[in-house]
């Protein structure tokens, strides 16, 4: 199909961008891999589950209703179940290459004059002994099971790691009837207090979560970490321990908690594959954008967590600003974003930066990773193998990958790259993956033969 603006990602950023651009007379195609719009924050239960009160699992449901109803009333063409693996420049615009449906084998193309990337982020999980046991899930994964499948991952859970996402996960599981044995947060209150001024606007939200944790009697273990998950063929419990101010486990503080579920997460990382494929520059690990959310590739915008982790409200503001800018570019007019969105972006960016600085995994986490702990799950590479590669002289992720195959499997390092970098003692580097998704060779071959024919 042909359109003026292809928006990739139908989370808060992509929805706000599509609505803003369509309201300004732009023909928009909104493309997403999921079967429903909403992204991670407004993840909807599968239609077949006939959820009676889906709002019970969500915050800010009114905003979702406004987005959903606005989309239904708009001219935006919604293309769900479209897994985009690459965006290619062509004369006069771009081709968005996608694979359709759950099998992801049938190709589809969207030709657009401009592209807006709103592909969000993904979870960052660091390894520890026992983390591959059944019963250990990511914090966002537990949330996705609840919101999308209306199921709980177990009966008694520990929620652990670091970052603000642990709060809705712990309270969400508790409200759904799971006994939450503890919320284990490696960041201490002192670290948060150091960013008090920038986080002042987040206080009411934080107080709300604190009240819910109290109501559900969820014990909070601040400046603690999970050092080991136990079980033979599935999780039966975890050992937690206190951390000192340097981020080292304090000897003698270990204790065991019985649980059948461990929901663990160490923050989020931006999805940048599609942006990098088109040649967009990065700012650290996120897509670099200017004040109008334009990337450094003309005709390409980015918004939401692909440009930095900051939460759903920031994603909405950035999406709106990006949509207005893209529409203005296509119409030859001046961008007219709502002043409230500009104000919200300024305020929320500063609290996002403070949260990012406050919530960091314990500095000495690699010391807890035993040699037999699997680091790269796809290729089953252990921490011992990574350390052998380091002994052989590897000093970065890429050399470790070449020596051990860590990061060469199905997920292409999305799960293990940060862990390998941590074990190697170097900062994580940008991914540089040519395709955002695995692509069947038949699809590539057919595309090649079509190009030769044309
Ligand atoms: C698993 C998970 C659970 C979360 N749970 C919570 C929570 O409970 N509470 C909270 O406050 N915050 C939560 N967050 C964070 C919150 O979801 C984000 O702050 C917010 O959704 C960001 O909005 P976004 O539009 O930038 O991205 P997202 O909402 O992540 O939307 C991105 C969209 O892009 C689509 N996409 C990505 N790549 C492709 C591709 N190649 N092809 C096609 N489509 C693609 C995805 O399917 C997704 O729908 C969660 C995040 C994650 C990852």
TrEMBL record:
Entries under InterPro entries matching the protein: BFD-like_2Fe2S-bd_dom (IPR007419), BFD-like_2Fe2S-bd_dom_sf (IPR041854), FAD/NAD-bd_sf (IPR036188), FAD/NAD-binding_dom (IPR023753), Metab_Enz_Cyan_OpOx_G3PDH (IPR051691), Opine_Oxase_asu/HCN_bsu (IPR017224)
EC number: 1.5.99.-
Molecular function via GO: oxidoreductase activity
Keyword terms of this UniProt record: Oxidoreductase
Family annotation (Pfam families): Fer2_BFD (PF04324), Pyr_redox_2 (PF07992)
Ranges for domain BFD-like [2Fe-2S]-binding: 374-421
Keyword Metal-binding found: no
Group of enzyme by EC: oxidoreductase
Domain FAD/NAD(P)-binding per the UniProt entry, residue ranges: 4-318
Protein name: Thioredoxin reductase
Protein species of origin: Streptomyces africanus
């Amino acid at each position: 199909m042909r359109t003026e603006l292809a928006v990739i990602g139908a989370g808060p950023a992509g929805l706000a961008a599509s609505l803003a651009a369509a309201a300004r007379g732009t023909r928009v195609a909104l493309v997403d891999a999921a079967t429903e719009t909403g992204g991670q924050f407004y993840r909807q239960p599968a239609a077949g589950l006939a959820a009676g009160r889906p709002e019970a699992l969500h915050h800010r449901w009114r905003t979702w209703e406004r987005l959903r109803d606005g989309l239904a009333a708009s001219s935006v063409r919604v293309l769900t179940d479209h897994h985009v693996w690459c965006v290619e420049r062509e004369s006069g615009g771009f081709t968005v290459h996608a694979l359709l449906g759950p099998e992801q084998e049938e190709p589809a193309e969207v030709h657009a004059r401009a592209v807006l990337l709103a592909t969000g982020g993904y979870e960052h999980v660091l390894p520890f002994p026992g983390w591959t046991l059944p019963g250990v899930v990511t914090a966002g994964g537990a949330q996705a099971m609840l919101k999308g499948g209306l199921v709980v991952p177990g009966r008694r859970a520990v929620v652990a790691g670091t970052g603000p996402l642990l709060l809705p996960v712990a309270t969400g599981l508790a409200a759904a009837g799971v006994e939450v044995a503890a919320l284990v947060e490696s960041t201490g209150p002192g670290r948060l207090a150091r960013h008090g001024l920038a986080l002042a606007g987040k206080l009411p939200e934080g107080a709300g979560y604190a009240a819910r944790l109290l109501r559900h009697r969820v014990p909070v273990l601040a400046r603690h970490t999970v050092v080991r998950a136990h079980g033979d063929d599935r999780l039966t419990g975890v050992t937690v321990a206190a951390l000192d101010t340097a981020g080292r486990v304090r000897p003698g503080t270990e204790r065991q908690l019985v649980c059948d579920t461990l929901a663990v997460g160490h923050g989020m990382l931006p999805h940048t594959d599609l942006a990098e494929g088109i040649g967009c520059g990065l700012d650290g690990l996120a897509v670099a954008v200017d004040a109008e959310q334009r990337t450094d590739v003309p005709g390409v915008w980015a918004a939401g967590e692909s440009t930095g982790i900051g939460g759903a409200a920031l994603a909405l503001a950035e999406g709106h600003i990006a949509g207005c800018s893209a529409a203005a570019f296509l119409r030859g007019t001046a961008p007219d974003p709502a002043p409230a969105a500009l104000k919200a972006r300024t305020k929320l960016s500063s609290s996002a930066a403070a949260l990012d600085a406050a919530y960091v995994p314990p500095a000495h986490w690699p010391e807890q990773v035993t040699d037999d702990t699997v680091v790269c799950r796809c290729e089953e590479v252990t921490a011992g193998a990574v350390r052998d590669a380091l002994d052989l002289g590897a000093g970065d992720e890429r050399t470790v990958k070449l020596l051990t195959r860590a990061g060469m499997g199905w997920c292409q390092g999305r799960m293990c790259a940060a862990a390998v970098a941590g074990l190697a003692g170097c900062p994580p580097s940008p991914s540089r993956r040519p395709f955002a998704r695995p692509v069947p060779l038949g699809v590539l071959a057919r595309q090649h033969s079509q190009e030769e024919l044309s």
